[in-house]
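One thing: could you explain this record?
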Amino acid sequence: MVAKEQEEQLLLDALFRLPLAHQLVIELFYWEELSVAEIAEALGVPVGTAATRLRRARQLLEEQMAMLTSSQAVRERIPFGFETWARNLRAQQ
């Protein structure tokens, strides 16, 4: 339970380190559960641009999370875990 909370806090800490535009895309996708097409419409950009922004935001989020943790085990779970952690955080709201 404690490890789960630490990982979720790590996700939030890393998210707040991203540029605002990347935070927005991550939040729209994971917290608001918008599709890439809906994100594109909301931002007024082509779908391909929205997809690229989301991909880049995920990459930056993973990098920030890896920089913020000293745990090798957590680093190894980051590419597969932050989607689950984001869903868990959304469910708590």
Remarks:
- The mean pLDDT is 85.
- Residues 47-68 form the longest helix (22 residues).
- The chain is about 85% helix and 0% strand.
